[in-house]
Design brief:
By secondary structure, the chain is an all-beta fold. About 0% of the residues lie in helices and about 45% in strands. The strands form two sheets. Strands 1-8-3-6 form a four-stranded antiparallel β-sheet, with no helix packed on it.
Length: about 90
């Protein structure tokens, strides 16, 4: 069983252009993303997210757990720029 003793919390303001939610991190054991905005957040594994190129769409008030073992960059973009992504990276 893999255990984490550190959770690093961050907040990323919503944007109509793709923004970095998490940088690549070889020490990442997991991460959570909560969309506190009033519109959809599109999340992509990689440097650029769009409304047509994404891994998961997180609705307003929605929550997502990044799959175990993914250590690459994570990006996001919103339908409307309101709110933030509340992120916790576990290492």
């Amino acid at each position: 069983m893999v255990s984490s003793s550190t959770g690093t919390i961050a907040s990323v303001a919503s944007s109509l252009t793709s923004v970095s939610l998490l940088s690549a991190n070889a020490l990442r054991l997991g991460a959570t993303i909560y969309n506190d905005g009033s519109d959809n957040l599109y999340v992509a594994f990689g440097a650029t997210a769009s409304a047509t190129s994404f891994v998961v769409k997180i609705a307003a008030g929605g929550y997502y757990e990044v799959p175990f073992g993914y250590i690459g960059a994570i990006s996001g973009i919103w339908d409307v720029a309101t709110g933030s992504a509340r992120i916790c990276e576990l290492s």
